[in-house]
Amino acid sequence: MAELTGLADDRALLGRTSTAERVSDILRSRIAEGYFPPGTRLSEDSIGGALGVSRNTLREAFRLLTHERLLVHELNRGVFVRVLTVEDVEDIYRTRSLVECAVVRGLGEPPYAVDGLATAVANGRKSAGEGDWTGVSTANIHFHRELVALAGSARTDELMRSVFAELRLAFHVVDDPRRLHEPYLARNREILQTLQKGDRDGAERLLAVYLDDSLKGLVAVYGRRVADGAQGTG
After folding, report:
1. pLDDT at 234
2. CA–CA separation, 115 and 17 (whole Å)
3. DSSP of 66-116, one letter per residue?
4. Residue 12 has what DSSP assignment?
5. Taking Cα atoms as reference points, which of 221, 130, 139, 135 lies closest to residue 174?
6. Contacts of 167 (CB under 8 A, 6+ apart)
7. Of 75, 141, 187, 192, which residue has the fewest beta carbons closer than 10 angstroms?
């Protein structure tokens, strides 16, 4: 399998002190990148062999990612990349709205450290120019991670890392990523420019509308895809 060839390249990241946490970091990244799409069964033998880790280490990594709601264990069937429900997507956006808007609202006096946001906006525009809509999606996630990072809270960063990884499970099911992600290139830039002006209240208003529109658009597309998949397996 092509994804396992790429996974074998990640073995060097483990170093001499292989741990379940490091394995889970690698698998989380691979899931987020779409190497293991939602619904994929993860083979202990294949993945353990590619990474050169023991079965026990891999099972612990699977347990950690199951706790993060990225994987699901099905009795007598194995471990699978989770397929989100529409209700899951709605709950993810509730969390995003609570956290992201609170971060912007809680910013102190300007100027704000928005270099990371500017880099994400530039990367998104570059990917769009190359027709790389997966890259646009990645840049968009990076934009929001950098936004959350403005809070300067390791706990908030950790919470939202899992939330954004879960969100990408929904993105991988969408069949027209350009239509989903392109409108938010300009909106990310607008939020950035508003923060560069020192207007945190304006940025929060833009962000709140942004997240509401994003939820509606994703639910409309994702709901159809999930329904079509259910009919196809019926």
Report:
1. 44
2. 34
3. HHTTSEEEETTTEEEEPPPPHHHHHHHHHHHHHHHHHHHHT--SSP---HH
4. G
5. 221
6. 89, 92, 96, 141
7. 75
* Residue 108: count of CB within 10 angstroms of its CB: 7
Burial of 19 (0-12, 13-18, 19+ CB in 10 A): middle
Cα angle, residue 207 at apex, residues 185 and 127 outer, rounded to 5°? 15
Contact 149, 160 (CB under 8 A): no
* H or E element at residue 21: helix 20-33
- φ, ψ dihedrals at 19, nearest 5°: -135, 160
Q: Report the candidate in 82, 90, 76, 98 with the shortest Cα–Cα distance to residue 38.
A: 82
Per the structure block, which two tokens stand in for 210? Answer: 């942004």
List the 78-81 sheet strands across, edge first.
Answer: 41-42, 78-81, 71-74
Each residue's pLDDT tens digit, 213-232: 999 999 988 877 766 655 54
Nearest C-alpha neighbor of 214 from the set 122, 133, 95, 93: 93
187: CB partners within 8 A, 6+ apart: 206, 210
Asked if pLDDT for residue 164 goes beyond 90, the answer is yes
Q: Tell me how far apart the alpha carbons of residues 48 and 35 are, in angstroms, rounded to a whole number.
A: 16
Give the torsion through C-alpha atoms of 39, 43, 47, 48, to 10 deg: 140
